[in-house]
Amino acid sequence: MEDIEDLLVGNGSGSPPGFRLPLNAVGVNLKKNKNKPKLHAKQLSETPISSKIPGTQTIYIKTFGCSHNQSDSEYMAGQLSSFGYSLSDSPEEADLWLINTCTVKSPSQSAMDTLISKGKSAKKPLVVAGCVPQGSRNVKELEGVSIVGVQQIDRVVEVVEETLKGHEVRLLNRKTLPALDLPKVRKNKFVEILPINVGCLGACTYCKTKHARGHLGSYTVNSLAGRVKTVIDDGVKEIWLSSEDTGAYGRDIGVNLPILLNAIVAELPSDGSTMLRIGMTNPPFILEHLKEIAEVLRHPCVYSFLHVPVQSGSDAILTAMNREYTVNEFRTVVDTLTELVPGMQIATDIICGFPGETDKDFSQTVNLIKAYKFAQVHISQFYPRPGTPAARMKKVPSNIVKQRSRELTSVFEAFTPYNGMEGRVERIWITDIAADGIHLVGHTKAYVQVLIVAQESMLGTSAIVKITSVGRWSVFGEVIETLNQINQKSKSVEKMLSEEKCSPCSDPCDSCACSGESEPCACGPESCGGQSTIEQSDVLQNEVLREDQNRRNLIGWLLRKRKNQAQKMVENGIASGSQKKQEWAKGAPEEWGVVDRALLGGLIVSVFTTVAILIHLGFKTMSSK
């Protein structure tokens, strides 16, 4: 086994150790072996090129674990793809397997072990990344494979190339955080998983992830806000903030989560086309920022959803876990956010059968879940992770652990969180295809999953839907209107009605009545009593729908005619008075004056006259024959 730094030192290319030049910049000096027999032309043509030239092979990537791991895999896939490697979902077709691992639970590591064994049996070169090799580099299953650490993903191309050459390499030393602007191949092109920091400040007795991800390391606010702006330009419609503990963000660099969230929200499009989802946060680090976080969660472009793991409803067990909060503090988080954020949805986690858990402790957990009836609860059995303090604690018998897990699951599955939604009209953001291949998947502002039957062309759009039925895990809806289409119509209508320019508004929290697009208010729509973005959108949608209805009848034609005439009058300076201008611009006065009635009467008389003349001419022609 060799270290990759040794493999790249003195490579004769003039590049520093660890630096990989692009393929077209690498000079290759082949060593001649005099004893090696020469290949004939036929043999040369039969030699596969993919086995000779770096960057021409096919890579299979398998990811286990959390969204942070998924983001790491997307970054590694992006780098490999940019250097010419092909990506495949078929392990049989691939020349090398890249396995990104998770160490949170035993089942995920067992799945990794099985996959590595299959790869070795199939004689596939293997590269293992993620938390398992970083936290447990000496486990038996990692013998004979290359490994790359969680903070070395920006060098995955080097590791892959050396592995394809037959070298076993390891790259695990922690360094500065990988750049956020690395090439990336997203699993879902509409969803950007954005890691805001690595590691955490906690020391939970059961957690192995801390061994792998290490102490807290946060990206700067400017780098994250810049990344958000970039991915929005790329067409991303959902941004997921990912972290081992979102609430701890920035404490190592002198900032905090609310500062970051406000900076990111400022980059989101004002039309609500791109949504932000805040990642998992433990209670201790958001208690002091609850009001600020609630304000962000109320923003029209932020999902009213938060994942806050409680793990147990017993203070005694939380102390044994070293979770650094009490059940009452968790309740404070849930109660405050639910009170301050309309429609707030909170997901949580429970570990059943933690060492020392008594029947009373478990009963307190069940009562907590019953009290709040969370729509999402992730229930898992306790798995002792090697090297953690909890692994040395006295275990609860496995049959009791399983029984408690089944009981709590039964309680949770009896909840009906979406009852009452049937018939409701909601705005959703559509980003994925359901597993059945029939429905598209969208989410409401509260991150309720909505399944609709629609064309794939609606992926990446926002729509107004009516909820037709509800299930246990999601609801079903039918599309009323695609908001992207409405927005396009709205812009054309606004342009037609608002071509005259006016002086700047005196109040910074007011938008000009004649401006085509309202500027976002720095103090927030609620603070200055203005309309929220959604309310303005609803008004605009109603105007567009009225415009469509007017096209269908004669009166609508007259209204449009009068509106155009009024607009010309305004442009020529004939009309006077701002109130009169606004009445003309609305184009739909409720009362008809004498001139209006005369115009309508004249039009009707003209129609009848024309018909009479045509009839007369027809009879005259027939009589002449």
TrEMBL record:
<dbReference type="InterPro" id="IPR020612">
    <property type="entry name" value="Methylthiotransferase_CS"/>
</dbReference>
<dbReference type="InterPro" id="IPR058240">
    <property type="entry name" value="rSAM_sf"/>
</dbReference>
<dbReference type="Pfam" id="PF00919">
    <property type="entry name" value="UPF0004"/>
</dbReference>
<comment type="similarity">
    <text>Belongs to the methylthiotransferase family. CDKAL1 subfamily.</text>
</comment>
<keyword id="KW-0479">Metal-binding</keyword>
<comment type="function">
    <text>Catalyzes the methylthiolation of N6-threonylcarbamoyladenosine (t(6)A), leading to the formation of 2-methylthio-N6-threonylcarbamoyladenosine (ms(2)t(6)A) at position 37 in tRNAs that read codons beginning with adenine.</text>
</comment>
<keyword id="KW-0949">S-adenosyl-L-methionine</keyword>
<dbReference type="GO" id="GO:0035598">
    <property type="term" value="F:tRNA (N(6)-L-threonylcarbamoyladenosine(37)-C(2))-methylthiotransferase activity"/>
</dbReference>
<keyword id="KW-0004">4Fe-4S</keyword>
<dbReference type="InterPro" id="IPR006466">
    <property type="entry name" value="MiaB-like_arc_euk"/>
</dbReference>
<feature type="domain" description="TRAM">
    <location>
        <begin position="419"/>
        <end position="481"/>
    </location>
</feature>
<feature type="transmembrane region" description="Helical">
    <location>
        <begin position="598"/>
        <end position="619"/>
    </location>
</feature>
<dbReference type="InterPro" id="IPR006638">
    <property type="entry name" value="Elp3/MiaA/NifB-like_rSAM"/>
</dbReference>
<dbReference type="GO" id="GO:0035600">
    <property type="term" value="P:tRNA methylthiolation"/>
</dbReference>
<feature type="domain" description="MTTase N-terminal">
    <location>
        <begin position="57"/>
        <end position="165"/>
    </location>
</feature>
<dbReference type="GO" id="GO:0046872">
    <property type="term" value="F:metal ion binding"/>
</dbReference>
<dbReference type="Pfam" id="PF04055">
    <property type="entry name" value="Radical_SAM"/>
</dbReference>
<keyword id="KW-0808">Transferase</keyword>
<protein>
    <recommendedName>
        <fullName>Threonylcarbamoyladenosine tRNA methylthiotransferase</fullName>
        <ecNumber>2.8.4.5</ecNumber>
    </recommendedName>
</protein>
<keyword id="KW-0472">Membrane</keyword>
<dbReference type="InterPro" id="IPR007197">
    <property type="entry name" value="rSAM"/>
</dbReference>
<keyword id="KW-0812">Transmembrane</keyword>
<keyword id="KW-0411">Iron-sulfur</keyword>
<dbReference type="GO" id="GO:0051539">
    <property type="term" value="F:4 iron, 4 sulfur cluster binding"/>
</dbReference>
<dbReference type="InterPro" id="IPR023404">
    <property type="entry name" value="rSAM_horseshoe"/>
</dbReference>
<keyword id="KW-0819">tRNA processing</keyword>
<dbReference type="InterPro" id="IPR013848">
    <property type="entry name" value="Methylthiotransferase_N"/>
</dbReference>
<feature type="domain" description="Radical SAM core">
    <location>
        <begin position="186"/>
        <end position="419"/>
    </location>
</feature>
<dbReference type="InterPro" id="IPR002792">
    <property type="entry name" value="TRAM_dom"/>
</dbReference>
<keyword id="KW-1133">Transmembrane helix</keyword>
<dbReference type="InterPro" id="IPR038135">
    <property type="entry name" value="Methylthiotransferase_N_sf"/>
</dbReference>
<dbReference type="InterPro" id="IPR005839">
    <property type="entry name" value="Methylthiotransferase"/>
</dbReference>
<keyword id="KW-0408">Iron</keyword>
<dbReference type="GO" id="GO:0005783">
    <property type="term" value="C:endoplasmic reticulum"/>
</dbReference>
